[in-house]
Amino acid sequence: MRGADPRVVLGLHRSRHERRLLTGALDLGVTTLDTSTNYLGFRSHQVLAQAAGDLLPKFTVSTKVGYFPAPRGAEHSLDPLRLYAAVEQAAEDLGQEPDLVFLHNPEHSLREADPHGQDVLTEACAVLDDATSKGLCTAWGIASWDPSSLVGLIGPTVPRPATLMVRAGLLVGIRTLDAADALVRAWDLDPSEVWGMSPFGGSTSVPVWAKIDPRLFLANSRQLSRVQAAFLAAYHLPRVGTVAVSTEEPAHLGELVGALVGEVEERTVQEYLSLLRDRSRDQPV
């Protein structure tokens, strides 16, 4: 087993939650799992406990609350009572208190809460803060697919999360990148307190990865593959300390862990961001 590497998180969004994947992650030194109440058809926690309950204490486990079963599949809610109950249920289903609970995509409900969005966000965050203080989880955070709608809501009444999770990587638009940076500044978060997710825009088989060479962003280690270079670049777009990645194959996870020996050229990142902003200004309103 390799030494633990806290910079890589095994995400279970598209995973079948197989035991071999978890043991493979441990062998690679990946000791953090990220799941959600709504993953695997709202069965993620139970399946994890059944398939690998003995392994879970070896991991730092994060999950998310905000989506709930509904007749047509799922619905989003920031109702404080539902959120608190979801944290309690997560601990029961996992067989242990989660180390980290994210408020999952709060923007989905905040769009309907205007002009009371800040109050709604404050109450939702306060519930997770309360759950943390009562020992239902070790810490709480916010995971946002589209953080731009949160930026104007952050104020002194909104509790500070321990961790912020946002999209990261070369396929993320400048609006989302700038919004993530704005939240980091508003909450005075260190990069070590920020996680990136979906570094490949959903899959390494997306056609764009065959058309571009992310190794242009590397300062050294040109021997890395395009996939490895894209993964490494995700730590800088925006600047995050950890990246969560979903996979079904321990070999793929091992390839990504191996990418961390590389180094990204910061000047190239800044040039890329400038190009994105220039292109954004040229788009019709």
Descriptive overview:
It is a single chain. Strand 8, helix 7 (174-187) and strand 9 (194-197) form a beta-alpha-beta unit. Helix 1 (19-28) packs parallel to helix 9 (250-258) and helix 4 packs parallel to helix 6 (117-133). The chain is built from 10 helices and 10 strands. An 8-stranded parallel barrel has the order 1-2-3-6-7-8-9-10, surrounded by 4 helices. The N and C termini lie far apart (53 Å). It is 38% helix and 16% strand. By secondary structure, the chain is of the alpha/beta class. It has helices at 19-28, 39-42, 44-52, 80-94, 107-110, 117-133, 174-187, 226-233, 250-258, 266-282, and strands at 8-11, 32-34, 60-65, 67-70, 73-76, 100-104, 139-144, 163-167, 194-197, 242-246. The chain has 2 domains: 1-34 and 193-285, no CATH class; 36-161, TIM Barrel (Alpha-Beta Barrel), CATH 3.20.20. The mean pLDDT is 93.
Task: Describe the structure concisely.
This protein is of the alpha/beta class. The protein has helices spanning 19-28, 39-42, 44-52, 80-94, 107-110, 117-133, 174-187, 226-233, 250-258, 266-282; strands spanning 8-11, 32-34, 60-65, 67-70, 73-76, 100-104, 139-144, 163-167, 194-197, 242-246. It is globular and about 50 Å long.
